[in-house]
Each structure stands twice: as C-alpha cells, then as structure tokens.
Write a sequence for this structure.
C-alpha cells in the first residue's frame, strides 16, 4: 500500500477541531472502572435518574403500535404541536411550522450553525462556554470572539459592557446558554434585555440554548425569544436529555424564524432525515405528563447542590452558587488539566478541566450523583491533597 492510501488528506474542517474533552474524560473514567477501580464519576453531563416510567411506556407502546418508519423530516405533528404549546407557555409566539425535531439538542445546534455561519463569519461566545459551541463554529469555518464572565461570578449582567464592546455590525451570531453548562449560572432578565438591545442594534442572530431551562433553583429562566424584538432573530434550542433524563433517547429541537427553519431543514433532511419515530412519541408524553417527576428531579439536584456547597465550605473551598443545571465550577490549580488528570488517576475522582470551557483554573463538577458519592469524592480529594 502506498503512503497516500494510509494517510488521506483530511478536510480542513476536521483538522480545526479536537474531540470533545468531556467525552474524553468519561472514556478514561470508564476505562478505569472497567479495570475494577472505584471511580466517583462527577464528569458526566447527565441526570442519574431513570427516564420517567410513563415516558418509557409511551416509547414501548409506540414500538408496539408500529411507529418504526421514517417520520416527516421536521417531526411528527403531535410532537411539534406539543413543543409549540410548551414554547407558548414560555411566552414565545410559536407555530409548529417553525420547528425542527432533531436527534438531540446537539444536532439542532449543529444544523443552526451550518445554516447561518460561513467562512470568516463572526460568532460571539460567553465564556466559560460549553465545549461543542466552539467546535461547531470552527467546523463551519466561523471565527470566534469570546467574552469572559468569570470575573463576574459567571453572571452576564455585569459583563454586558464587555459584550457591548465585543459585538459589532460584523457579528453574525451570539450564543447564550442559560442556565449555563458549565457554570450553572442563570442570567437575569436585565442581562437578557441587554442581549436583546445589542442584538437589535447590530442585527445579530441569537442562539438561545435553553436545554437546562427546567432545571433552575431560584427564579425561572426567561426565554430570549419572548423578549420584544427577539422573535425574528432568535433560534431557541432545547431537548429532552436533561429535564426528562432522556440522554440516550436522542431527542431535541430548534425553533426559529421560518427562513432559518427552511435552510436548517436542508441540513437536517440530508443528514439525519428525521428523529427516531417511536422516540418522538415518547417525547409527547414527556412534555405533557411529567411535571411532577421533573420537579422531583429538580428538587433532588437542588438538595445535592446545597450539600456539595456545604461540604466544600467545610473544607475551606468557596464556590459561586449555581442557580441552575447540575454543574459547579471548582477553583483548582492554574494547570487544571494536570489537576483533573491527577485527581482521576490518584483519587479516582473524575471531573472536567475548566480549560475545555475556556475557564482555566477550574474543574467542572457534575453533582448529578448521590450524597454518599459527593461526600466520598470530596473526602478523597482532601485526603490526597487536591483540596
Ligand atoms: C449546553 C448544552 N447544550 C446542548 C447539549 C446537547 O444535549 P443533547 O444533544 O443530549 O440534547 C448539551 C449536552 O450536554 C449541553 O450541555
């Protein structure tokens, strides 16, 4: 075989990105677990509860009823209507025709970025930012401008001046993720209004990733598209993974002005065709009949957040109190990559380096774990000198 067959010329778009750092840590943690190590895995971005029983039953019923074919590309009408109704409850003037149901929120984001970002287009991210935004923009050829909320306790409102300086008429897209992964910050209504003012002034499309929208502990998160002037410039991203504990089902959606839906729909139909049929039926049940279960999970996350913050305070570590999602940023060494690697290899505690989110000096902890495991993790980190 010749050398050229062994090393194909890969496309620039894949050379520009790295594999997901969070998935890399999870893989290493799984490897250690398979070697019999007792790993406390606080790296995973998923609830540790089973999918609600009625949702599982709805999925099984859909399979039994033969819902195993392709569906309309943008989703079954019943689910699109249920999603539109949820969005209307959130104050968004939603129509089922302005929606695409996707295999996970990630695919919805990917299609959005592919539809709107060309080579050299400017996308603004709020740091610390979820790992995949940067990769998606780079794959599309876009350029990144970053605004850091770290000095402001991860809040957006005090960073609005910096955001105002970062955006311009050349900005094509701004990504807002509240509640935030990795910080757990929930942005104030004033912050969202500030985003609206800037977006309108500079004619920017805002991607509002609201996947943790139902996991908040204080005030509810206002949907950006519900703000005056935002309905025709907001792409709302959401999904079933987090609120309904349905990560493996792969179900999400985007809601956007018709033109964006038409263009993103091309990417959608030529890549995944549609989301899985019986999963969409389970999604209808999740949206319509799980309020009590969603609340129960949220209360449990809140309890664990409080426990973890207390345990950390007891060992002298102060953290910003997250108001949503199930993550917390732990201040660690400047070399957070080395810290996380050592904590995993020596204490068998898995966390994600803050650098993955452009937040060096931190490790992201997911507290979607039992109280016993959270205590165990902090005990190990303290006794091995990591905290
Ligand atoms: C901020 C954020 N957006 C989107 C996603 C995508 O989730 P999914 O594709 O499972 O719906 C995730 C998953 O971790 C996330 O944390």
């Amino acid at each position: 075989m010749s050398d050229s067959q062994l090393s194909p010329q890969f496309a620039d778009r894949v050379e520009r990105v790295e594999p997901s750092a969070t998935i890399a840590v999870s893989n290493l943690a799984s490897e250690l677990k398979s070697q019999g190590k007792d790993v406390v895995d606080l790296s995973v971005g998923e609830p540790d509860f089973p999918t609600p029983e009625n949702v599982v039953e709805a999925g099984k019923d859909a399979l039994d009823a033969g819902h195993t074919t392709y569906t309309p590309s943008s989703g079954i009408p019943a689910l699109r209507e249920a999603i539109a109704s949820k969005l209307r409850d959130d104050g968004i003037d939603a129509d089922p025709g302005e929606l695409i149901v996707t295999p996970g929120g990630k695919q919805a984001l990917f299609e959005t970025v592919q539809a709107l970002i060309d080579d050299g287009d400017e996308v603004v991210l709020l740091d610390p930012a979820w790992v995949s935004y940067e990769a998606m923009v780079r794959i599309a050829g876009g350029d990144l401008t970053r605004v850091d909320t770290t000095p402001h306790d991860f809040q957006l409102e005090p960073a609005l001046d910096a955001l105002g300086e970062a955006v311009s008429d050349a900005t094509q897209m701004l990504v807002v993720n509240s509640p935030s992964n990795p910080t757990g910050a929930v942005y104030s209504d004033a912050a969202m209004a500030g985003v609206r003012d800037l977006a309108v002034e500079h004619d920017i499309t805002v991607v509002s990733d609201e996947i943790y929208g139902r996991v908040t502990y204080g005030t509810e998160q206002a949907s950006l598209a519900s703000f005056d002037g935002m309905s025709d410039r907001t792409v709302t991203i959401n999904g079933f993974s987090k609120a309904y504990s349905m990560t493996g089902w792969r179900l999400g959606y985007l809601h956007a002005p018709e033109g964006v839906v038409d263009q993103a729909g091309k990417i959608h139909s030529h890549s995944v065709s549609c989301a899985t049929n019986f999963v969409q039926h389970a999604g209808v049940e999740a949206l319509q009949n799980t309020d009590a279960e969603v609340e129960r999970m949220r209360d449990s996350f809140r309890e664990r957040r409080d426990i973890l913050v207390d345990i950390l305070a007891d060992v002298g570590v102060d953290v910003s109190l997250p108001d949503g999602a199930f993550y917390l940023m732990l201040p660690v060494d400047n070399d957070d990559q080395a810290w996380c690697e050592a904590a995993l290899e020596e204490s068998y505690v898995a966390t994600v380096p803050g650098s993955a989110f452009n937040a060096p000096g931190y490790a992201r902890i997911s507290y979607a774990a039992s109280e016993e495991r959270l205590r165990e993790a902090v005990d190990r980190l303290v006794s091995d000198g990591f905290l």
The longest helix spans residues 291-314.
